[in-house]
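Exercise 7.
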Amino acid sequence: MRINFSQKTKSIVAGRSGYLCSYPGCPTPLTIGPAREDDGVSKTGEVAHIYSAAKEGPRGQGNLTKAQLKSVENAIWLCAYHATLVDTNRGTYYPPAVLVSYKGLHEASIARKHRGIYAPLGWLHELRITGGSLFKTPAKIRFGQVSFLAGGNESGRSSLCEWLTAISDPTWGLRRWRNRYGDDQPLCFEVTLFNPAKITVGVQVLESAKIRFHLNGQEVPFNPISTRFFTITEVNKGRVADHEKEAWNTWSDLQRISSAIHIDATALENILPDVGNVERSVQKIWIEEPQQVSSEMSDGDISRSQLMVKLKHQGFSLHFSQLSSSEQALVLIEIGIALASFSANYVPTVLVLDGFSVFDDRRRAEWVDYFSSANHLFQTIIEVVSEGGKLDLHLRPSWQAVSLVGSHRFVEIHQFGETE
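Solution. The predicted structure, written as tokens, is:
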């Protein structure tokens, strides 16, 4: 029995696409125009299913419920030609993750143009690991609007995110991987992006510690395709580079946060007014210079500027260091959201959230809904500390989840809902 879309759903999907085909590079993307009669409208587009309308249809139905199968989230607007093409050969060449990427990329483009912003677009689609000693290779990970990496300690969650950032910043992303010897295999991986055409960036770390890049199979001196990653993590001394640890005690909160999340302190300071405007927990965040700080502070504190925070559930402000670890995490996440929201208006952007306890089983679905919002033009990767890679979430078309099972040298990568 087919599960069809309602007329309301079809209208929403067509409108969100701007009545343009969502297939990247479609030569005739416009799917609406005047009919031959003076007062008529001609439509040549179709609302296609991402997961199939029928159990035996292309791409299958995964584990989606009836409501999910007929939702806007499971629909993509395509021209008649591409609607047929994606279902050819049972959809083998266009699995759900690919169509979700097409849809996300296209809707982000329409949203930007609607705001008067015309900028290059991109979508992080896939990571393929072909060499290295951490994971069982070959292995691959597909990414959605929201992607979870779930695993225990030493399962490689942070390593995967470092490798992704290496396509734009190899000095930082590969700092731990350039001087490995002994039994370690040289690291080799590929990252596939839609920009909007499909592009593959290959990275190889040689035994000499040199790095080689390939773009669509051709060797290049560096990756010219711009993608910005913001990795938001806990602020503590153990997270910074070795040469910075000695200076840690003399730094202000702004310096500590900028170093931990690897961003320029000036950019971090300038984004603070945007934190708390429409987000979840922070009402206001600002910097107080030394002369403004209470005389009750210690001499060491008075010598540095203070990062002050007023949370929405509190009626008073506190110094960042006075917040609980979960409150600090919420502040850092909202800083990351502000950075990614601004950046995504101009370049493809991915927000990486590294192992915060606020993404526990109770609140995880709520966070998925939040980061899946159409208001967010960036992708989000959430690292979840979970022994055995367990993740208690129901599958949705717009997100991906990966389970990392094992520890160093013996980690297996399992993708939830993989249909290939």
